[in-house]
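Worked example 2:
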Amino acid sequence: MEMRGGVRRETITTERTPVLAAPGIRRRLFRVFSGLRTERGQALVEFAFVGPLLLLLILVVVDFGIALDHREVLQHAVREGARRGAVGDTVAQITDQIHDQSPGTLDPSDITICYVDKNGDGQRGDPGDNVRVKAKYTYKFSVGGGEALAAFGVTPPSIDMSPVAEERLEKEAPNPIPC
């Protein structure tokens, strides 16, 4: 104990005993417990909520793209059928051509072939008239979007397609069917 200028000072010396003997444990514990206050898992939780909706949106867009592809294939098949009709093929040959061009998508019962009297002579199927080919098809969303929507209790949508093609006859048509 010392006295300086009327103020008594005491120096107390004590031995420090380490709370945790292993070096670096305090630092590690601090990181662990302070990490509880960070937001490291927040992005994962947000993705868990948003991820399925994003996946559903992507599947619906892909399914819609497949529907557009089907529409293009059907339009091409109908156009090819009308070309065959323009050169004088029979209705059965035209139907077979359309069925072959649409890789199994169209049934023969979905195809309508008729002849329009364009030149006004009262006869259908002579050169100058038109052959009209129609098809009807319903695309149901199924690949990913339809199944995912059904899981949420929503009825999967469908798209009705009815491509039409009309060509002028070059030769007389056998057994023309009026429109």
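The helical segments are 25-35, 42-86, 91-101, 145-151. The beta strands are 2-4, 7-9, 111-116, 130-135, 137-140, 158-161, 164-168.
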